From TrEMBL:
<keyword id="KW-0808">Transferase</keyword>
<protein>
    <recommendedName>
        <fullName>Citrate synthase</fullName>
    </recommendedName>
</protein>
<dbReference type="InterPro" id="IPR016142">
    <property type="entry name" value="Citrate_synth-like_lrg_a-sub"/>
</dbReference>
<dbReference type="InterPro" id="IPR002020">
    <property type="entry name" value="Citrate_synthase"/>
</dbReference>
<dbReference type="InterPro" id="IPR024176">
    <property type="entry name" value="Citrate_synthase_bac-typ"/>
</dbReference>
<comment type="pathway">
    <text>Carbohydrate metabolism; tricarboxylic acid cycle.</text>
</comment>
<comment type="similarity">
    <text>Belongs to the citrate synthase family.</text>
</comment>
<dbReference type="InterPro" id="IPR011278">
    <property type="entry name" value="2-MeCitrate/Citrate_synth_II"/>
</dbReference>
<dbReference type="InterPro" id="IPR016143">
    <property type="entry name" value="Citrate_synth-like_sm_a-sub"/>
</dbReference>
<keyword id="KW-0816">Tricarboxylic acid cycle</keyword>
<dbReference type="InterPro" id="IPR036969">
    <property type="entry name" value="Citrate_synthase_sf"/>
</dbReference>
<dbReference type="Pfam" id="PF00285">
    <property type="entry name" value="Citrate_synt"/>
</dbReference>
Length: 371
């Protein structure tokens, strides 16, 4: 296949934010394993935006500011009530809602460095509140405001469920957020960079990125993985189900990657977490089904699980509805999107590739009655 289809392997930017070499992923020079084991998601966001980890005082100020901005304008909570709620996918809702939040930001069009950073912070803070409040409004539940003193991960679960999460739940959510925060020039990040390279605003860049993440070949795969597991139903059905998909040349969701050919380094954490959490919930069979799917696809096609494969059962074990999986991915990836947008602004040039014309030539306009 020609490289130009899908821009495979084509380097189009210099970036200091994340790097993929073989199966090694780093954020600003820190290995993903180190950060997944030790870091709070807020620290990772700070790292991606400032190219260094915060000290204690900086982290406190940063977390306080995030908390402050998490409280949405009442009109934003209210606007969800005007959605034809039963039919709106949460990613569609998020795409609209994030765009709507720009209406409440007096600095939306301000292009100073300070204003751009402030907007990044505002977006990062508002996303969990948007996802959680949409989920509650569609279920006819009261919206829950963030609680002071909780981490970003815990506050999201609190706003979603109305209960402070257990340590195990908070740790799992934090880890998933850290693991998905950035990933070089994936499709949604590239989308964000293309958008703001026209000197458009950061809200437009993030709205465009949410749209790109939604697709099942990208972030939308996590929801499809859960649908597949439900469809398979039980361990004894896996082999026949997957063989049929392979025979029909259908893609198996959560498997394969454009860059990683020897395995996605994030998947091993998520696999481990999936095993632990599903067993604790008495749903160990879901993990066993996932593991068997991965074994068959590796044997038959030589393809390995990506970040979306085991994250599905991790989210499911946290009691999260499957159509919220991709919005949660967006909450995490917003940190990378905004980091890349700020990097693009700092050294911008319009992104405008070429296409090779392969269509008809030499046609002449013909009057409509003669066609
Ligand atoms: C956060 C993320 O975005 S991670 C990716 C999430 N997406 C998914 O999980 C969706 C399923 N996976 C896929 O569709 C692909 O592997 C992608 C989109 C991730 C990568 O795609 P590309 O690099 O473009 O690979 P491409 O789609 O060209 O596949 C190459 C070959 O492997 C096959 N293949 C790739 N992924 C899969 C899969 N999941 N199941 C079955 N076959 C697959 C293709 O059918 C193709 O086979 P062929 O050469 O016989 O036609
Ligand atoms: O990099 C990619 O193409 C997809 C991916 O894994 C991500 O966005 O995390």
């Amino acid at each position: 296949m020609s490289q130009k289809k899908g821009l495979e392997g084509i380097v189009v930017a210099d970036s200091r934010i994340s790097s993929i070499i073989g199966s090694q992923l780093t954020y600003c020079g820190y290995e993903i394993d180190d950060l997944a084991e030790n870091a709070l998601f807020e620290e990772v966001v700070y790292l991606l935006w400032n190219d260094r980890l915060p000290n204690q005082q900086e982290l406190k100020e940063f977390s306080d500011k995030l908390f402050e901005l998490m409280n949405l304008d009442e009109r934003i909570y209210d606007h969800f009530k005007n959605y034809p709620i039963e039919s709106v996918h949460p990613m569609t809702a998020l795409r609209t809602a994030l765009s709507f939040t720009a209406h409440f930001d007096a600095n939306a069009e301000n292009t100073s460095d300070a204003a751009q950073k402030e907007k990044a912070l505002r977006i990062q803070a508002q996303l969990p509140a948007l996802v959680a409040s949409f989920a509650r409004v569609r279920n006819n539940q009261e919206v829950i405001k963030p609680k002071k003193g909780l981490s970003y991960a815990a506050n999201f679960l609190y706003m979603l469920n109305g209960e402070t999460p257990t340590d195990v739940q908070e740790e799992a959510m934090n880890k998933v957020l850290v693991l998905q925060a950035d990933h070089e020039l994936n499709a949604s990040t590239f989308t964000a960079r293309v958008c703001v390279a026209t000197e458009s605003d950061i809200y437009s860049g993030i709205t465009a990125a949410i749209g790109a993440l939604k697709g099942p070949l990208h972030g939308g795969a996590n929801e499809q993985v859960m649908n597949m597991l439900k469809e398979v139903g039980s361990l004894d059905q896996v082999d026949a189900y997957i063989q049929k998909k392979i025979d029909n040349k259908e893609k198996i969701m959560g498997i394969g990657h454009r860059v990683y050919k020897e395995g996605d380094p994030r998947a091993k954490y998520l696999k481990h977490m999936s095993k632990k959490l599903t067993e604790e919930n008495g749903e160990g069979e879901l993990f066993e089904i996932s593991k068997r799917i991965a074994e068959i696809v590796e044997k038959e096609k030589g393809l390995l699980p990506n970040v979306d494969f085991y994250s599905a059962t991790v989210y499911h074990s946290l009691g999260i509805s499957s159509d919220l999986f991709t919005p949660i991915f967006a909450m995490s990836r917003a940190s990378g999107w905004t980091a890349h947008i700020l990097e693009q602004y700092a050294d911008n040039r319009l992104i405008r590739p070429r296409a090779e014309y392969v269509g008809a030539t030499g046609r002449k306009y013909e009057a409509i009655e003669n066609r």
